[in-house]
Amino acid sequence: MFSNEVVSNLGKSSVVRAMFEEGTRLKQIYGEKNVYDFSIGNPDVEPPKKVKAILQEFSCDTEKGKHKYMSNAGYLETRKAIANSISNSHNIPITFENICMTCGAAGGLNVVLKSLLNPQEEVIVFAPYFVEYLFYIQNFNGVPVIVETASDFKIDLEILASKITKNTKAIIINSPNNPTGVVYSKKELENLNDLLCKKGAEYSTDIYLISDEPYVAISYGVEVPSVLEIFENSIVVNSFSKSLALPGERIGYIALNPKIKEVSILMDAILFCNRTLGYVNAPAIAQRLITALIDESVDVNAYKEKRDILYNGLTSIGFECNLPDGAFYLFVKSPIPDDAAFVKLALEKYQIIAAPGAGFGRKGYFRLAYCINKEVIVNSLNVFKKLYENARMAEWQTR
Q1: Number of domains, the chain
Q2: Does residue 61 form part of some domain?
């Protein structure tokens, strides 16, 4: 009666969203302060003050036509602002003709994949990965190929090389990474580019590098290299959900490297897919906001402070995790092998809401989103200590 594929995927659907909904339910029972909700990357910081001022200005503007359709690519002035920003920060000339405004990064990724993929072509994803990537690829009859990363979650080129085939169409990277906070260095990306060029020549094909960059503005004292400088066949998908704390406004963009072969045809395909997938165009008011706020960002130091409190607190208890270089997540090793059982224990006995690592393609870990109230983080540490002791005792008793 319904789509077999969709019904089958319901059981695999986003565990992060499921935990988020559970957190909402528990807060109604126990109260906000008694639930430690680390489930979802929903920024607690407010957008820059200019946002409200600009919205007030728009609402009082009497000029007609402010809410009409525009080009499927978006407003010209918005695309020019983004192209100029990229040209200045990425050291590569790019024009508005290579920019398409999208309904967030999720919409952008779906548009890119629809534009690139023929049935059964492969898209490589590094584990651990953002939970929705696999569904995005499957939406367009592509085949996700999962490649494990090293113990520090960096790219293992030897493993990757063994997974690239004549059917490989693209690779998705996410740096700073969700869920690990890893930032790939320039040298790592240059080595990755060398491998893709070598494999592309071997199979006489072009392998596209899709860079999912919603966290590119959130890094802690490390450089986030420009993929547009390094990879000729690169496509950047970005959003302002995290950099401006506007996740509910669903505004982002696609930027194509001008060096892509027949780049104008690919852009035409992207504009066609932006329309026919039902997005039509990015929201008008959100585009006008971005035009005025292109050089603005949230205070990254606020996230760094929360990262340090949570990381130092958890590692002093005995939890193991890498210190993130960016984004706002900790990917923590579970004190028991079964990460789902650990997350269930945390939820049911301690009202700590985390996401199991298995949902991100890496069992034995759990993810904590620390883009939440600092007081909640501080208050959670004593509860985490009790949880850790309980879990270790339960593990010892089963031996």
Answers
A1: 2
A2: no
Residue 179 and residue 140 share a domain: yes
Beta bridge partners of 97: none
Asked if 272 and 346 sit in the same domain, the reply is no
Read off the pLDDT of residues 120-151 as tens digits, 9 standing for 90 and up.
Answer: 999 999 999 998 999 999 999 999 999 999 99
Domain containing 17: what range? 4-48+299-397
Cα(175)–Cα(185) distance, integer angstroms:
9
d(CA 99, CA 286): 16
**Which residues contact residue 205 at a Cβ distance below 8 angstroms, ignoring those fewer than 6 apart?**
166, 168
Contact predicate 329/357, CB 8 Å = no
- In degrees and rounded to multiples of 5, residue 17 shows phi and psi of -65, -40
My answer on whether 76 and 217 are in the same domain is yes
Q: Which amino acid is at 177?
A: N
Which of 125, 109, 129, 223 minimizes the C-alpha distance to 178? Answer: 129
Q: Which two tokens stand for residue 314?
A: 């958890």
CA–CA separation, 62 vs 75, rounded Å?
Answer: 19
8 Å CB contact between 242 and 41? yes
pLDDT at 3: 72
